[in-house]
Every structure is written in C-alpha cells, then in structure tokens.
C-alpha cells in the first residue's frame, strides 16, 4: 500500500530516527540537547546497574538466611546480577553515544579538523 502511494515503508528496529533526520541540519543547541539526552540515559543505566547489584547482594543474603527458599533466592540473585551487567552495558553504550555526539558537534562547528596526511 505505501509503495503504491509513492511512500517508502521501512521496518527497522534500530536507527529509525536517523533516517528521518538525515536531511535536517543540526544546530549547536541540537547537539547540546542530544548530549544531555545521552548523559541522562547514561546515568539511568548506572543507577540501574547499582540497584540491580544491591538487589543481587540482598538475595544472596536471603539465600543464606532462609535455607527453605534458598534455591529461589539464588535464582533471583543470578537474574539480578544479569540485569546489572546488562544495565552497565547500556550505560557504556550511552557513554559512547555521548562522546560520538560531542565529536559530531565539534566537527560541525569547525573546531576539529581531520588531517589525513
């Protein structure tokens, strides 16, 4: 249907925003806003990692304290540890995106020059 009307219809899981903004010229405010956005998400990832780590430690304590339900507590501890690792990975990813946004802002403003030779 979309092809018949002359519109492209894409099904992408990632980078769907970048396609819409390809033709758009970003200003200094846009770069600052994007950096702030990635910094905020990075902090959320860090907080998620800390919270998951704390919950994993709590479940480890509960496994020792409550031997009747120790198996359940050990499983919850492992799940919390996995969530903590994933959240830390997300924070690292957002940190990388923040640095990339800063680099793009510097290149757009002409502060950074790339010399090939």
From TrEMBL:
Stretches of the chain forming a coiled coil according to its record: none
Pfam families, per database record: ABA_WDS
Positions of the UniProt region annotated as Disordered: 1-42, 91-117
Top-level division of the source organism's lineage: Eukaryota
Record-linked InterPro entries: ABA_WDS
Bias kind Basic and acidic residues: ranges: 92-110
Sequence similarity: Belongs to the abscisic acid and water stress-induced protein family.
Official protein name in the record: Abscisic stress-ripening protein 5-like
Gene of this entry: LOC120276808
């Amino acid at each position: 249907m979309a092809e018949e009307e002359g519109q492209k219809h894409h099904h992408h899981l990632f980078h769907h925003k970048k396609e819409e903004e390809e033709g758009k010229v970003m200003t200094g405010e846009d770069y600052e806003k994007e950096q702030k956005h990635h910094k905020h998400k990075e902090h959320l990832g860090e907080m998620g990692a800390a919270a998951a780590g704390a919950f994993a430690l709590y479940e480890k304590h509960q496994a020792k304290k409550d031997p009747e339900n120790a198996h359940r507590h050990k499983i919850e501890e492992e799940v919390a540890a996995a969530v903590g690792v994933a959240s830390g990975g997300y924070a690292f990813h957002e940190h990388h995106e923040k640095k990339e946004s800063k680099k793009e802002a510097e290149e757009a403003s002409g502060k950074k020059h790339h010399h090939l030779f």
